[in-house]
Amino acid sequence: MTKEQQKLLVPLDDYLKVGIHIGTKFRTKFMMPFIYKVRPDGLAVLNVQEVDNRIRLAANFLAQYDPNDIIIVCRRENGWKSLELFSKLTGIRSYAGRYTPGVLTNPKLSTFTEVKLVLVADPWPDKNMVFDAAKLGIPVIALCDTNNDARHIDLVVPCNNKGKKSLGLIFWILAREYTKIRKLGSESEVDKFFEEFISD
Known about the structure:
Elements: H1 3-6, H2 12-17, E1 35-38, E2 44-46, H3 48-62, E3 70-74, H4 80-90, E4 93-96, E5 117-120, H5 127-136, E6 140-144, E7 155-158, H6 164-181, H7 187-191, H8 194-198
Parallel strand pairs: 3-4, 3-5, 5-6, 6-7
Antiparallel strand pairs: 1-2
Helix pairs in contact: 3-6, 4-6
């Protein structure tokens, strides 16, 4: 094992098994810096070291905020189960499903909420949240596949943001790192849920 691999947040095999590095056949200019190569079948492959670096950055960024100052949105059904587990372990609020425009911007809504940081699982289906946060100057972290537009995104986390296991692994790492940095519980507590996060 190389020094680079030893520095990863999880073993390289864990990343490869869930296909965290497998992108789409579409590649935007925003995501080109993160692409390692394009396979013969046309699928773009992300640089795993860069994926890992960005997950680490995202975890450190999240850890600067209290749980009630963050909101996470995931319209993609493949991420709902792992997002629910993430919320349970960290205390961070989440929206699984469609985020209604105005929740952050319209104080007249009964669901109105104030936050200091937003994370979206995919800036395309979760664009309402991205636009609302941008209007208010709230930083946005986004899990971005090779086909994503990164305008209005403050921190891009390149990854396969469509696969259930890939999303599960990312949310598990973020939960583990967040609880560890903020001393919200033992690492072993989050470790217990590893299989649940990445199961089908």
